[in-house]
Amino acid sequence: MAMIEGGSSEMIFVYNSKRDLDKQALAYISVFSDKIVKLDVQSSALEYSFLADLSGRLGVGYQDLVDHDCEQLKSQEYYLHLSTPKQYIDLIVKHPDYLKTPVLIYGDKAHFISKETDLLQLSFL
After folding, report:
1. I need a labelling partner for 82 at 20 to 30 A (CA). Which of 45, 64, 69, 94 fits?
2. What letters, b where the CB count within 10 A reaches 16 and e where it falls short, cover 12-38?
């Protein structure tokens, strides 16, 4: 997926269909809106421009896009040596499972969702 596009009223929900929290949050948000574009990292290629745009909308650095709690990632030797923004982006492009999800994108903002009820706190729903 290239740059994040969509109108100001369109929501994009970025999730990983292998994760239970992501699936629960997707079901939860689907109740509130039918204008949701669903982006499953398991079936969508993530591009550098998308990740750069996502980082900007979240207001975080590239290293914060990585799910540092992922046991699979922590077991990789190269994880200990990541230091540059390019290394973090390359990691996510090559291994989309390492992207911290779920994320809800709405307009020019984005929010990490840590539990499905976090969605209630977002004023635009």
Report:
1. 45
2. bbbbbeebeebbbbbebbeeeeeebee
Number of domains in the chain: 1
Domain that holds residue 79: 11-121
pLDDT tens digits, 82-109? 889 999 999 999 999 999 999 999 888 9
CATH of the domain at 84: 3.40.30.10
